[in-house]
UniProtKB/TrEMBL annotation:
Entry's Gene Ontology molecular function annotations: transaminase activity
Summary of subunit composition and partner proteins: Homodimer.
CC cofactor: pyridoxal 5'-phosphate
Listed Gene3D superfamilies: Aspartate Aminotransferase, domain 1 (3.90.1150.10), Type I PLP-dependent aspartate aminotransferase-like (Major domain) (3.40.640.10)
Top-rank lineage group of the source organism: Eukaryota
This protein's UniProt keywords: Aminotransferase, Pyridoxal phosphate, Transferase
PANTHER family assigned to the protein according to its UniProt record, in alphabetical order: ALANINE AMINOTRANSFERASE, ALANINE AMINOTRANSFERASE 2
Official protein name in the record: Alanine aminotransferase 2
Signal sequence segment: none
């Protein structure tokens, strides 16, 4: 119970560092999303939680047809 009433002296330092790290990660996530969304034919939902981005890439039908003509197989997942 003593720890609740009298928190450790390092607690304030810890919370400042934690807020700084989380703020930095949120800023990087926003930058990643904005950067991916500037690429033509690409869309990315907001990056949240883990630092994983899942951009959606739009390939024009004409590009798919050209790939087939050149013998390049096209598979969509």
């Amino acid at each position: 119970m003593d720890i609740v009433v009298n928190p450790l002296q390092s607690w304030e330092q810890f919370t400042k560092e934690k807020k700084s790290i989380l703020s930095n990660l949120a800023e990087r996530a926003k930058l990643t999303e904005e950067s991916l969304n500037t690429v033509p034919g690409m869309h990315c939902n907001p990056v949240q939680g883990a630092m994983c981005a899942f951009p959606r890439i739009f390939i024009p039908p004409k590009a798919i047809e050209e790939a087939k003509v050149c013998g390049q197989p096209f598979t969509a997942v």
